[in-house]
């Protein structure tokens, strides 16, 4: 099916299609599903040999989702959600991967993909009004539309440590974990980083290793997951009440099913505050940040809750000196809040040492381990890099994307991520990003924000087809206004108070700004709905 009745039409070339989708994670698969079901000719690519996206790569011990599985799952098909059984409250990586594989099979999506194939360049041909996509297999595909479903946290960050090449021990990245079991038994292991990945992996590595050293640059907040198996009864009840679960998700600004207080933390009296925080703590997980509605916008309220949480963390650590070192010193949630199982208790073990990089930094790697600036040496058999990602823009800028007049996205974004609605970029017609910078993405339940963005892209392509348009492009003026609005909103929040992957501050040389849309999912969805209702306000259709 040719996508539009007017404008550029596919040539007879077998490599021509309506839409190219990059990525086989939650976003890419759903996009491919929506488009192919409606008859579009789609070519899709992923550099991994299989589906799963982030859940394909992140196989480190303890990897699991920090959003409850009942909501961290597709809502687009009621049979799918009624039939699937989640074994645990927070699913672990193998279960999430199994779910994604099931979806790929159920909707027969694999046949549209070339796996093990990276996209190496995408160039907009202005005279033809089409994109030329070149892949690692040497193929060139001509397409009318081009969707980057490449994920927010998919380009690993590999910090350059002096002397790393000399190190003779084993090296692992949490974000590229081997498929076979890695054994740490009898080994001295160094873990670098204390973000979500390390917080999940370290307690399990500590159980195996002879000795584990955690190299911490910034202490993190973590809330217990209180993970547990889902009983048959609980799962059955959820399956029967899925409409209600999704309704609660849809009315929440963070995309998680919950109902919370309507006043701010600083307005609550002491007794009510204690009761609410105790309730939130016992419920556990990411929702601690939603225990009061003003925690990301009001520093005073945030401080009240941050201090309460720090006291809870302190109770979990036996040695007061270690506890001091593990105390976060920024507003809770400004860096992505972590969800843990026995993280802080891990530092009570005799075989675990916290190495505080604020006291002395890493001077270099040596053949045998790590030498610190103060001369201390740690002999290590293995090092685990849990050093995070070049988030939000890493995958979008990983290869050359060239729009009108040969302008590259890298050049356009040199000083920041200009975009319209987080889905489109002026100068790059018919190109879409799923959960790109400027959309709620990582501040919302990822699967739900993916579904909304994918539906928007699909509806837009359908709108063009039905109305005889060949092209859609964000107008520069609207793009500037949206970009300014995203920055303005971020400045009303705690998120800009600390360096993090949200701001780009974790990557040397990356422009620092706040990338996701922080105004809340509901507000964003309503904004996008209005744009569409106003006849795609801010877009040029031709
Ligand atoms: O990465 P991170 P992550 N020397 O960037 C440190 C999602 N996720 O992979 O904070 C020393 O959070 C760095 O230190 P600092 C989730 O959204 C979800 O853990 O920059 N240390 C930090 O401690 C999460 O937020 C799940 O000072 C260095 C750590 O490495 C996001 O992915 C599980 C360093 C990186 O932490 C990223 O999490 C896992 C250096 N040169 C991930 N460079 C769940 O669903 C970096 N660090 C639960």
Automatic annotation (TrEMBL):
<dbReference type="InterPro" id="IPR020946">
    <property type="entry name" value="Flavin_mOase-like"/>
</dbReference>
<dbReference type="Pfam" id="PF00743">
    <property type="entry name" value="FMO-like"/>
</dbReference>
<dbReference type="GO" id="GO:0004499">
    <property type="term" value="F:N,N-dimethylaniline monooxygenase activity"/>
</dbReference>
<keyword id="KW-0285">Flavoprotein</keyword>
<dbReference type="InterPro" id="IPR036188">
    <property type="entry name" value="FAD/NAD-bd_sf"/>
</dbReference>
<protein>
    <submittedName>
        <fullName>Cyclohexanone monooxygenase</fullName>
    </submittedName>
</protein>
<dbReference type="GO" id="GO:0050661">
    <property type="term" value="F:NADP binding"/>
</dbReference>
<dbReference type="GO" id="GO:0050660">
    <property type="term" value="F:flavin adenine dinucleotide binding"/>
</dbReference>
<keyword id="KW-0521">NADP</keyword>
<comment type="similarity">
    <text>Belongs to the FAD-binding monooxygenase family.</text>
</comment>
<keyword id="KW-0560">Oxidoreductase</keyword>
<keyword id="KW-0503">Monooxygenase</keyword>
<dbReference type="InterPro" id="IPR050775">
    <property type="entry name" value="FAD-binding_Monooxygenases"/>
</dbReference>
<keyword id="KW-0274">FAD</keyword>
């Amino acid at each position: 099916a040719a996508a539009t009745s007017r404008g550029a039409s596919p040539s007879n070339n077998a490599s021509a299609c309506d839409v190219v989708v990059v990525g086989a994670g939650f976003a890419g698969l759903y996009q491919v599903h929506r488009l192919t079901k409606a008859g579009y000719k789609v070519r899709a690519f992923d550099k991994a040999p299989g589906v799963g996206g982030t859940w394909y790569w992140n196989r480190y011990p303890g990897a699991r989702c920090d959003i409850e599985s009942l909501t961290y799952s597709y809502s687009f098909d009621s049979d799918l959600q009624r039939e699937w059984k989640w074994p645990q409250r927070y699913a672990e990586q193998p279960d999430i991967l199994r779910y994604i594989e099931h979806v790929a099979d159920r909707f027969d999506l694999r046949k549209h993909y070339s796996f093990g194939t990276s996209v190496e360049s995408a160039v907009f041909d202005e005279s033809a009004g089409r994109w030329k996509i070149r892949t690692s297999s040497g193929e060139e595909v001509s397409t009318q539309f081009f969707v980057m479903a490449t994920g927010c946290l998919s380009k690993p960050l590999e910090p350059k440590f002096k002397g790393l090449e000399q190190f003779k021990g084993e090296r692992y990245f949490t974000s590229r974990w081997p498929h076979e079991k890695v054994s740490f038994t009898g080994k001295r292991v160094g873990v670098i980083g204390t973000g979500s990945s390390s917080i999940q992996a370290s307690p399990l590595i500590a159980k195996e290793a002879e000795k584990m050293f955690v190299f911490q640059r910034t202490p993190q907040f973590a809330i217990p997951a209180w993970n547990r198996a889902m009983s048959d009864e609980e799962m059955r009840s959820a399956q029967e009440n899925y409409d209600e679960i999704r309704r609660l998700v849809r009315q929440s600004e963070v995309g998680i099913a919950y109902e919370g207080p309507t006043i701010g933390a600083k307005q609550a009296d002491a007794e009510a505050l204690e009761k609410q925080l105790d309730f939130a703590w016992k419920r556990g997980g990411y929702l601690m940040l939603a225990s009061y509605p003003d925690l990301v916008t009001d520093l005073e309220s945030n401080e009240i809750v941050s201090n309460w949480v720090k006291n809870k963390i302190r109770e979990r650590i036996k040695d007061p000196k270690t506890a001091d070192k593990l105390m976060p010193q920024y507003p809770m949630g400004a860096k992505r809040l972590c969800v843990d199982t026995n993280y802080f208790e891990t530092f009570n073990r005799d075989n675990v040492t916290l190495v505080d990089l604020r006291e002395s930094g890493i001077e270099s790697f040596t053949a045998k381990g790590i030498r610190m600036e103060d001369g201390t040496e740690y002999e290590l058999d293995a090092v685990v890099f849990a050093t995070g990602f070049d988030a939000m823009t890493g995958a979008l800028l990983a290869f050359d994307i060239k729009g009108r007049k040969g302008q590259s996205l890298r050049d356009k974004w040199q000083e920041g991520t200009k975009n319209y609605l987080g889905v489109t970029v002026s100068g790059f017609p018919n190109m879409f990003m799923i959960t790109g910078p400027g959309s709620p993405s990582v501040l919302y339940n990822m699967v739900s924000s993916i579904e909304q963005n994918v539906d928007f892209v699909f509806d837009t392509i359908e709108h063009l087809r039905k109305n005889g348009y060949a092209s859609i492009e964000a107008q520069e003026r609207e793009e500037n206004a949206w970009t300014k609005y995203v920055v303005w909103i971020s400045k009303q929040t705690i998120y800009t108070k600390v360096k993090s992957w949200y701001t780009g501050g974790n990557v040397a040389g990356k422009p620092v700004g706040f990338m996701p849309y922080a105004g809340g999912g509901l507000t964003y969805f309503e904004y996008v709905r209005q744009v569409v209702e106003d006849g795609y306000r801010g877009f040029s259709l031709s």
